[in-house]
């Protein structure tokens, strides 16, 4: 346990598993502390039809299992547990799982982000069967159907506008009269004939048994309820990066997303890299996370090679 690893990857999802694949093929023998929630947001995604190489689509959990197994084939080692704290004050870096300490010359942070949910039991029951958190991922499944978008920010407006390419009707539900969305995004949504707005309302329940059939809305001012038929519910109330462990060590923005140097996955601490949704609040796709994971592994490999070359040069330099 106290052997110094070349690289420890924290997090198991498209970014973490791809980083593991690249690191393992580079003979870096990575340890992946994947967490109990390994697989990330794809574990609550049913059909994935936009990941290259799977022309007939693939289930989200199955895709993550393929990612994981491929990296394992080349020697990646897995620990299915949660990291409880880190110490990046000096190298080797220290990563803790409870009282167990793991040491590494480099660390790749790939803990992802979590979509905010409404907190309804019916929402969880119908995830992947009408309830979703990504229009770009799932809009094509709702062609010629009526859908609901919950949210009042720019992301909700973007989701609603995108969905009009497929759905016959998009109803935006927002709990207040005023929107957080920028004026330009709100004007675009209001100018789209397929989009309708229901304000001062919240979703109280997602209706349906094996498949979503609608939502029950509650008026926030009168408490009156009504039902709205729809086959899809897109929850667009934001994402939270899983960065709590790293905020005291790594530079981050106001929302908690880790900041990396332009053209690199390197953080403010040399040897610590951040990949995937933990530092990307724009694209949030499995394929972009995977690409970011490969970049992190390549950056870690180059960092180790440069450090080894520096040490070798120091050892062979003539002494006075």
Overall shape: elongated
Residue windows where pLDDT falls under 50 for at least 5 positions = none
Share of β-strand residues:
25-35%
Instruction: Find the structural class using helix and strand composition.
Output: alpha/beta
Count the helices. How many?
7
Let me know the number of strands.
19
Please trace the helix and strand order, writing H or E for each element.
EHEEEHEEEEEHEHEHEHEEEEEEEH
The whole-number mean of residue pLDDT values reads 92
Largest sheet: 7 strands, mixed
CA radius of gyration is 22 Å
Helix coverage percent of residues? 25-40%
Separation of the first and last Cα atoms: 39 Å
Name some characteristics of this structure.
19 strands; 320 residues; alpha/beta; elongated; seven-stranded mixed beta sheet; 26% helix; five-stranded parallel beta sheet
